[in-house]
Amino acid sequence: MGKFCTSCGTALNEGAKFCAKCGANASHVLEEAGTLPEQATPNSETILSKAGKQMKIEAKIKAAAYAKSMFSEATPAYQSAGELALPAELTPLAGDFEAENLLSLLKIGIKGLAGGLKRTLHDKKRLVVVIALVITWLLVNLLVSLGIFPLPLRLLSWLTAAQGSLIGGSIGKGLVAALLAQLIADQGMLQTVKSGLGQLGGIAKGLRGVAGPLLMGIAVALIVTNLMVSSNLQNTMVCLAAFLLSAKALTHHGFLRKFINALLPKANNTTLTTLMRGWTLGFALFAAISFLPGGGNGYVLGILLLLAGGLVTVVNKNKKEASGE
């Protein structure tokens, strides 16, 4: 005899536990009306009542799962590295949210970062990584100052981002430390990065409509990276760390997305998402241009792409306005 889903009314396959159309639990199904005794045939009110209860249960389960994913107990200092400093989980999932006050958002971000660093002191795995990196940085810089810089030491310096300026270099070191700590302490790190990289694969689709924000996202990343490090091969580990952390953050809402939304309150969800994807790609592009001579390639290419992105955005806007008239 035929069975039907209580949620959407779709016919169920024999032995199915879930509806193939809506995914509802098939443990309670409707028997085909013609095969039931007359007194057992459910009326339309009974069907709607059962369907409504089932929908409420599913909504509660989904809401609980979403809340758990958004408010996990992961250490903010490392969960966020890849955004501001790049702190706080980068970005884009579907769905707009109300823009927050910029000053309040910055205060929340700073407090979250400070609290995360404090909690990191109680995480033995991450603490061991940080201590080992600090010792390595000091040792490498000491040997370099003494004129000792053989190939193995150069590789170690590259892997740990041991060299760099006081301010920008410290940020680059923080990114590398965050990446290494997450790879060691977070078992799901690689899978999350893989999911983020999968989002980058969809950029080619509909590129014409989002080329402006994409170019501007890439441009800002190039300029920011050049502020941290000069464009040479010794600094490409910083680019790699920033790229992977940003790709990981593409699967989450986070500080940077909210920060950009506060700066651009009129930007829609597609624009924000494209900016974030461009930001991620910018780090990979910076690593590529590091093979070219010169230390300021990121500034030059970043400014050119920023101008190009602005021009493309204006042209697309004028075309939309013209077509709407």
UniProtKB/TrEMBL annotation:
<protein>
    <recommendedName>
        <fullName>Zinc-ribbon domain-containing protein</fullName>
    </recommendedName>
</protein>
<feature type="transmembrane region" description="Helical">
    <location>
        <begin position="298"/>
        <end position="315"/>
    </location>
</feature>
<feature type="transmembrane region" description="Helical">
    <location>
        <begin position="206"/>
        <end position="227"/>
    </location>
</feature>
<dbReference type="InterPro" id="IPR026870">
    <property type="entry name" value="Zinc_ribbon_dom"/>
</dbReference>
<feature type="transmembrane region" description="Helical">
    <location>
        <begin position="233"/>
        <end position="251"/>
    </location>
</feature>
<feature type="domain" description="Zinc-ribbon">
    <location>
        <begin position="4"/>
        <end position="24"/>
    </location>
</feature>
<keyword id="KW-0472">Membrane</keyword>
<keyword id="KW-1133">Transmembrane helix</keyword>
<dbReference type="Pfam" id="PF13240">
    <property type="entry name" value="Zn_Ribbon_1"/>
</dbReference>
<feature type="transmembrane region" description="Helical">
    <location>
        <begin position="161"/>
        <end position="185"/>
    </location>
</feature>
<feature type="transmembrane region" description="Helical">
    <location>
        <begin position="272"/>
        <end position="292"/>
    </location>
</feature>
<feature type="transmembrane region" description="Helical">
    <location>
        <begin position="127"/>
        <end position="149"/>
    </location>
</feature>
<keyword id="KW-0812">Transmembrane</keyword>
